[in-house]
């Protein structure tokens, strides 16, 4: 080796050493503390994902290939919590299984502030003084103020009131009004859609946008009333354009680098501000009678008017309040609507499944009509299993927390105060050690791998001990035939279950901050898919390529991942 080192090559060797040595040292320093993390009982901070370049840390892998980066480190460290260094800041990743369940259990010591602040500031454009107001309320989300904040003015406890209103006004009788409005509006848009008036086939270039627009319009109106779109007729288009550029805004690039993205957001924001200004001018916050109404065409649902009162009372600027509500409208639409498309698409690409779903939902509908019994429809086992399976496979919504106490502990892991903890159900939903994947085929592969859709994954058939979502030690399924296909009769006797999947199936997050919109979302998804199947005959132009449509991973991990590419279809109204 020494024979190759001449006096000319020495400077190069020195330069190389100067470059390589710090990288090696950084890697060694960041890896050495991980020794023994799998063994022993002593509490410790989670292992650190080693990196080569100081300051940069794990930023590159995390920011530019988040899905693969996290998949690889979760698997390498065998599903324990991890410490990641991103954007010059520490962060914890909490994986599926016991760690995420323990995180949810520790709710009383956690806030969602760090992820929420990033989202509100970077994605929705909440001005900095309003962000300060948002984080300034440290009295917590429970009725009893957090220790040290016992004297907080009850009317200014923003997080408590917001949390309480979201939970109560998205459940019970308020939820019923909201869902009924959604059903009324969505049914009306189907019935009055002039494109299908003649009963002839109509070519639609993209099933997703076709379905998306009608659901979004009905959902928006059931939340915000009729006035919103009257004031801003192009909002729905502007909203989806905003949704499209949202992943770029999360990258925190300045306005001068991506001006068109900011302009797109400005447009969607301007509509919410217009509606807020209308409310400020026309809805007196002392008008208890109007504020008590579950829904009015002018101001929308009680959730929206109660929020308006809260935003005004707690001193948010008109711009801050509108940006916060742009966030709420995004939460309303951006996760549920792509999920509805995936549900419908998976049904349409399998003619046998489509027939079984139509048979199952038939008795919920009134003869010759689009009217139905909601409870009956939403209790159909096959449609429920399709709903659960779709969320398992397509949701990558972020779950973010930070500890409010020094050295929070769960299991043997210790977490520092104020360091962001991140999780997403994407990996738990695809954990091959956990999920039932059906029969083992003669070539040794499994019948329903975790990255594929299996309509019956969440169904438990009483005569088949191997059925149900969770992998069983002995897999010996008893299917009605050797094709593995189920019959309508079997569906009827099956039960859709999520028992035992907690910690692996958490599309709505968990603990105290679990998604408050989950009840509405489930009804919205089941109803919209059922209504579309009831009202229309839909033929996918190229079944094979539609079955291969991939998720658009640019959206990872911001929510339900929408499909990438268009799905051409022919649609005609059914004669009911
Ligand atoms: C399939 C549809 C949906 C999915 C997968 C989903 C998922 C999630 C997730 C994972 C969270 C974070 C929960 C946590 O941190 O533990 C969340 C929060 C939230 N979701 Fe949903 N969501 C959906 C539909 C909806 C709908 C229809 C609404 C209606 C307004 C909604 C409103 C919200 C709100 C307001 C929050 C923030 C709650 C808080 O900060 O306390 N979501 N959602």
Q: How would you characterize the overall build of this protein?
A:
The protein has 576 residues and is of the alpha+beta class. It folds into 2 domains: 9-34 and 41-123 and 401-428, no CATH class; 154-397 and 507-573, Cytochrome p450. Helices cover 47% and strands 9% of the residues. The protein has helices at 9-32, 59-64, 66-76, 98-105, 113-123, 128-136, 158-169, 172-191, 207-224, 227-231, 235-250, 259-282, 288-291, 302-313, 318-334, 336-348, 351-361, 374-378, 381-394, 425-428, 488-493, 518-535, 543-547, and strands at residues 82-86, 89-93, 110-111, 202-204, 295-296, 300-301, 395-396, 398-403, 408-410, 413-415, 420-424, 459-460, 495-496, 536-540, 559-560, 569-573. The strands form 6 sheets. The protein has a 5-stranded mixed β-sheet. Strands 4-16-14 form a 3-stranded antiparallel β-sheet. Helix 5 runs antiparallel to helix 6 (128-136). The radius of gyration is 26 Å and the shape is globular. 39% of the residues are buried. The model has no long low-confidence stretch (mean pLDDT 94). It binds protoporphyrin IX containing FE. Residues 112, 163, 166, 328, 331-332, 335-336, 339, 391, 395, 397, 399, 507-510, 513-517, 520-521, 560 line the site of protoporphyrin IX containing FE. This is Cytochrome P450. The chain crosses the membrane at residues 12-37, 49-66.
């Amino acid at each position: 080796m020494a024979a190759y080192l001449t006096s000319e090559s020495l400077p190069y060797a020195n330069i190389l050493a100067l470059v390589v040595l710090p990288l090696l040292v950084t890697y060694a320093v960041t890896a050495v503390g991980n020794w023994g993390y799998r063994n022993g009982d002593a509490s410790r901070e989670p292992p650190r994902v080693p990196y080569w370049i100081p300051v940069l840390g794990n930023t590159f892998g995390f920011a530019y290939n988040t899905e693969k980066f996290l998949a690889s480190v979760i698997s390498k460290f065998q599903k324990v919590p991890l410490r990641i260094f991103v954007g010059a800041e520490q962060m914890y990743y909490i994986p599926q299984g016991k760690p995420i369940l323990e995180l949810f259990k520790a709710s009383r010591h956690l806030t969602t502030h760090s992820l929420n602040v990033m989202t509100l500031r970077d994605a929705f454009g909440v001005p900095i003084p309003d962000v300060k107001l948002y984080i300034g309320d440290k009295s917590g989300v429970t009725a009893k103020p957090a220790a040290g904040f016992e004297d907080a003015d009850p009317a200014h406890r923003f997080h408590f009131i917001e949390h309480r209103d979201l939970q109560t006004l998205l459940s019970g009788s308020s939820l019923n009004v909201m869902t009924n409005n959604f059903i009324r509006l969505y049914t009306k848009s189907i019935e009055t859609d002039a494109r299908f008036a003649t009963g002839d086939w109509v070519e639609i270039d993209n099933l997703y946008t076709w379905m998306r627009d009608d659901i979004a319009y009905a959902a928006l109106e059931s939340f915000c009333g009729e006035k919103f779109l009257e004031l801003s007729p192009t909002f729905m288009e502007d909203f989806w354009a905003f949704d499209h550029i949202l992943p770029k805004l999360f990258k925190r690039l300045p306005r001068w680098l991506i001006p068109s993205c900011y302009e797109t957001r400005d447009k969607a924001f301007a509509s919410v501000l217009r509606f807020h200004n209308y409310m400020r001018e026309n809805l007196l916050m002392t008008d208890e009678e109007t504020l008590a109404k579950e829904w009015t065409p002018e101001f929308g649902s009680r959730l929206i008017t109660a929020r308006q009162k809260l935003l005004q009372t707690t001193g948010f600027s008109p711009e801050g309040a509108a940006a916060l509500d742009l966030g709420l409208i995004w939460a309303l639409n951006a996760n549920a609507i792509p999920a509805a498309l995936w549900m419908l698409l998976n049904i349409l690409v399998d003619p046998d499944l489509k027939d079984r779903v139509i048979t199952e939902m038939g008795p919920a509908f009134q003869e010759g009509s689009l009217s139905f019994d909601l409870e009956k429809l939403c209790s159909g086992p096959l449609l429920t299993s399709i709903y659960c399976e779709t969320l398992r496979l397509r949701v990558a919504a972020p779950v973010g927390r930070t500890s409010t106490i020094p050295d929070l502990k769960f299991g043997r892991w210790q977490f520092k105060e104020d360091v962001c903890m991140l999780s997403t159900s994407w990996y738990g939903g695809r954990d091959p050690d956990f999920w039932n994947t059906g029969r083992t085929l003669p070539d040794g592969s499994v019948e329903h791998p975790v990255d594929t859709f299996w309509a019956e994954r969440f169904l438990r058939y009483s005569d088949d001990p191997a059925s149900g979502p969770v992998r069983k030690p002995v897999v010996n399924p008893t299917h009605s035939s050797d094709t593995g296909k189920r019959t309508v009769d079997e569906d009827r006797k099956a039960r859709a279950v999520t028992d035992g999947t907690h910690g692996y199936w958490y599309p709505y997050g968990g603990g105290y901050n679990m998604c408050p919109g989950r009840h509405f979302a489930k009804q919205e998804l089941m109803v919209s898919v059922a209504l579309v199947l009831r009202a229309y005959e839909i033929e996918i132009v190229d079944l094979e390529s539609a079955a291969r449509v991939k998720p658009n991973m640019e959206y990872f991990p911001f929510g339900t991942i929408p499909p990438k590419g268009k799905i051409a279809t022919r649609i005609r109204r059914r004669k009911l």
